[in-house]
# Entry
Amino acid sequence: MAVLSKEYGYVILTGAASFVLVTYLAVKVGKARKKYSVEYPTMYSTDPEHGHIFNCIQRAHQNTLEVYPAFLFFLATGGVYHPRIATGLGITWILGRILYAYGYYTGDPKKRMRGAIGSVALIGLVGTGVYSACQHLDWI
# Structure
């Protein structure tokens, strides 16, 4: 049975920081809804003048939510045996998502690729989580 190390606290704090990120992105969408007059429950704007900018802001948040469950799962499981590595990858993912969002906010979706480091970090978390599982099963 695995016993969580004291350093696992850093993993928990990274998870909490990721929640702050997701909340920040949600607030940005809420402000954009007001600014561009996009009423709930409409997901995307069809306004030919400003709809594109709103849609970019909305997609930055939506895409983050699409990968968020996997991020949290692999952060938590990878951190069981490798809390420092998982924390570093988690912080890198958060920074990557910030770069991704701000690139998207420009209105040029190609600039979202500035945050590609976040995807690399997520792949690292997947590897760390799988490696932790193998360690837990005494396969390694």
